[in-house]
Structures are given as structure tokens and as C-alpha cells.
Design a protein that fits this description.
It is built from 14 helices and no strands. The protein is an all-alpha fold. One iron/sulfur cluster (SF4) binds next to helix 3 and helix 5.
């Protein structure tokens, strides 16, 4: 028998079936770190008093922990629609909680589960990071020196002139040869890139990406295939060179 859906009769929010709420909570509770991050809760509010995000947003780590501790399925689901993305992951709360809880760690688990369940809040929160992700996967780096320009950082004021120095000359002065580049922070070789792809596949990172942004996932798969082909070709060339030697 299907349980009656749970919903707020005076809310415009879509009704969520009880099984869906349970599935979300089960994924949170069964996370390998859950028992490490939650041991009980005094409802004392020390975490919220020290939380920087609580000062600026409609967000309270105490509330998040209480929702989980009391297994308030609707409240947990609702908090995952916006509130969990306000946490700055600074872990001040974990350092202060008398129960050794880590509200920030619990929020991290809830974010992972929000991604797994393709929640709109996860898609919205992660959209601005698409470019960063593509850059990491295609070059092995998040930032490049030539991305730091006057236009990109107008709020730097007069200090921005410092980044208008001759980057290519300055970079060549760095003793490490892999950093003699301006379009990546350092050169990542093909073998390392291919190994990273394997890690992302095996740890479920790519699967998570697919549930959040299918187009970006397709682009990234193409980049990975291309790099793997290049690596296979390089290995073949090395074998031929060894055979000829
Ligand atoms: S999580 Fe810790 S600090 Fe926060 S309300 Fe509960 S017991 Fe207090
Ligand atoms: S980790 Fe998150 S919940 Fe904890 S203090 Fe920092 S911002 Fe607040």
C-alpha cells in the first residue's frame, strides 16, 4: 500500500511522497560519516552562536542538527531545498559543540544526498562551478595565471596593476619547470590526468555530476575520452621507441 503523501495544505510547495522523504533520510543516515558527525544534541545553540553563516542568512546549524536528531523527515527535506547551501564549511561549529557533533559535516552529507537525488537546489548551487569543473577536468588545474585580469577582478582596486606584470616572463623565473605556463597553474601530465579520471569514476564523482548537469557531463566525458586516447597513443609510441632501440 502506498502511504499518503505529506504536504503542507497552506503551502504552494509540491507535495513529496513519504517514501521519497524516507529515501532521502536513509541516504543521509547510511552515509559512512553520519555516526561520526552526530552523537546527540543538547539544543544549546552554541553552534549557531559561533556560526558565521547564521549571522547573515536564515540558517542555523542547531536547527539542522535537531532535524536530523529527531528524524524530522519533512523538515530535513525542506532544509535541503535551500538552507544547507548557506553553510560556509568553516567547521567552527564542530570545534565548539559540547557533544562533539559536526553540524558542518552533517551539512556536507546532506549536500551529497541532495546531489544524488538531483534536487533543484543542488543544481542551482553548483551551476556557477561548471566552468571551474570543466577547467579542472581538461587541464588538471582550477585557476590559471592568465585568468587573473583587471576585468575579472574589478574589486581589487589599485592592486590590480600588480597582475598586469609580464606574466610569461615572471612565470619563467619560477624554478619549477612545470610552472612555466600562464594558461594553467602548472602542467599536469597525461598519466596524472587519466589517473584522476579513474578516481572520479570509481568514487562516484562523475555519476554525481551526471545527476546535476547532463550536458556538462557529456562534454567532460568527451574531454576524458580524448585525453585517454592521447595517453594510449603516447604509450604506443613509447613501446615502438623501445622496440627500435
Ligand atoms: S549541535 Fe552541539 S552545539 Fe549545536 S545545539 Fe546541538 S549540542 Fe549544542
Ligand atoms: S561549518 Fe557551516 S554550520 Fe558550522 S560554523 Fe561553519 S558555516 Fe556554520
Amino acid at each position: 500500500m502506498t502511504a499518503a503523501p505529506i504536504g503542507d495544505p497552506v503551502s504552494n510547495a509540491p507535495v513529496v511522497a513519504y517514501e521519497a522523504l524516507e529515501a532521502v533520510f536513509e541516504d543521509i543516515r547510511s552515509h559512512a560519516l553520519y555516526d561520526h558527525e552526530l552523537h546527540g544534541c543538547l539544543n544549546c545553540g552554541i553552534c549557531t552562536a559561533t556560526c558565521p553563516s547564521a549571522h547573515y542568512y536564515d540558517y542555523s546549524p542547531r536547527e539542522i542538527v535537531q532535524l536530523l536528531w529527531t528524524e524530522n523527515l519533512e523538515g530535513i527535506y525542506e532544509a535541503m531545498q535551500e538552507k544547507i547551501w548557506a553553510c560556509a564549511q568553516c567547521y567552527t561549529c564542530a570545534a565548539r559543540c559540547p557533544f562533539d557533533n559536526s553540524p558542518g559535516g552533517l551539512v556536507m552529507i546532506m549536500r551529497e544526498v541532495a546531489i544524488k537525488h538531483s534536487m533543484p537546489s543542488a543544481k542551482e548551487a553548483l551551476r556557477p562551478f561548471s566552468r571551474v569543473l570543466l577547467k579542472v577536468i581538461s587541464t588538471g588545474n582550477q585557476l590559471a595565471p592568465n585568468m587573473i585580469t583587471r576585468d575579472a577582478f574589478p574589486d581589487w582596486g589599485p592592486n590590480v596593476t600588480k597582475v598586469e606584470a609580464p606574466l610569461d616572463v615572471l612565470r619563467k623565473a619560477i624554478p619549477v619547470p612545470t610552472m612555466h605556463t600562464t594558461d594553467t597553474a602548472w602542467e599536469v601530465n597525461l598519466k596524472t590526468s587519466v589517473e584522476l579520471y579513474t578516481i572520479w569514476e570509481e568514487t562516484g564523482v562523475l555519476q554525481q555530476l551526471e545527476s546535476i548537469d547532463e550536458n556538462l557531463f557529456d562534454v567532460i566525458c568527451d574531454v576524458m575520452d580524448e585525453k585517454r586516447d592521447q595517453y594510449a597513443e603516447w604509450q604506443e609510441e613509447q613501446k615502438e621507441a623501445e622496440a627500435d632501440a
